[in-house]
């Protein structure tokens, strides 16, 4: 993709002439492979979707990719300043782990009300935790103020070229599966921008997912940049009032569509993931899968972006939400050659047992059971 990731210079003073390209994503992959093994792809048959399990990533979220790549790139440039970041939780945990591995001082500003499991995860890796404000945007403003006063390097959770390139390595790991569409959750847009940079040259459609009332990116892409407080949502990781300037530019240029889901759909999807696929996801982690029913595609892949959910929240969801029972698989009798069951990538379908001849030597027709997606 020669120029697909090259956006024209923005007029926003926070962006200037910043450019992020596929080459940056490939450079990030070369840096990160020493520290982060690829996360698995899981074939969720009941959903009819492949899942990229970033909930099994270090610190339980894809965010560690961008944070680690930013620290490694800064070290290459000779920048060894302490790093400060604002985060609802996952970026803070990723930064804390990366700083611990590289011996860098890290400070994280988290809003009051951030999940306790995420606050504990940050403290576990030795980063300094400051809680300020009741939203990500209030924490962001305070972190920027501290950075200017103390000479720290401020590391955005999404609007930073090194962070975007690091998140794009998710797309590089998905590429061998050869999907026709990949669905990603959108908060500030770092993951969506990076994945789109990595996959658009492969002819893959990339679709973003947001929640009703937490849709700052889709509004910005339509030209409405007015800051509106996001509503309360299970997807706390994507509750951003103002998306990134760099990411807004890339998402507008590269995304094929952005889908908005209802809060009730998100809650049901999270519970179904736990009960039917034995996978624990946080609200934002289940967002892409919740949007999957609105996205057409034969080989769909949804990114489960994180799994850091408070135990009390998960317990309440499991007790309150009653998912609709999945539709029973349809049985089809094939005349002649038996049809083959759907198989995950790089796996051969299970061969059907040959028909056992009847004593009267009459021929029997082999029958295969095809389990169809409810989507």
From TrEMBL:
Residues 322-375 are annotated as: Disordered. It holds the Pfam family PALP. InterPro entries: Ser/Thr_Dehydratase (IPR050147), TrpB-like_PALP (IPR001926), TrpB-like_PALP_sf (IPR036052). Keywords: Lyase, Pyridoxal phosphate. The keyword Nuclease does not apply. The keyword RNA-binding does not apply. Residues 37-298 form the Tryptophan synthase beta chain-like PALP domain. GO terms for molecular function: threonine deaminase activity. Its cofactor is pyridoxal 5'-phosphate. It comes from the Bacteria. SUPFAM superfamilies: Tryptophan synthase beta subunit-like PLP-dependent enzymes. Gene3D superfamilies: 3.40.50.1100. This is Threonine dehydratase.
